[in-house]
Amino acid sequence: MKIKKDELIISIMIPVAVCVVSSLISGNAMATFDMVKKPPLSPPGWLFPVVWTILYVLMGIASYLIYRQGRGREEVEEALRVYVLQLVFNFFWSIFFFNSEWYLFSFLWLVALWVLILIMIVRYAKISKVAAYLMIPYLVWVTFAGYLNFGIFLLNR
Hints:
This protein is mostly helical. It has helices spanning 5-26, 29-35, 47-67, 74-99, 103-127, 129-155.
């Protein structure tokens, strides 16, 4: 498969744009994060943008690999629909968590996101094993985020 650089760049920019817009709406999220009581193993605030940037790039690359397998094929279209849906859930989580401080609702939203990521990985695996593997760090990070989110809910009620 020949790499089409413009399609790859667009594929990477889509999740990065979701991140940027959500971050802008969320305001100074790290200041909010610094002020809440956090569970053990909470990483320093500077780590979040680093990890999320890497994850969004991996997401973009994986979606490109899926897209290139044949847009118009039902399995590809369905995998991309799940990808878009999980991006929507990803977008709104930080707004619910940081702006609204709805910690329990955010946790439940994150559980739904986790399920969508798992479904996406399963669908990706049927089309491109590499794309599916690229999503595993995302699933792991969202699992860890769930631990942090639930811990913050318990400690800040």
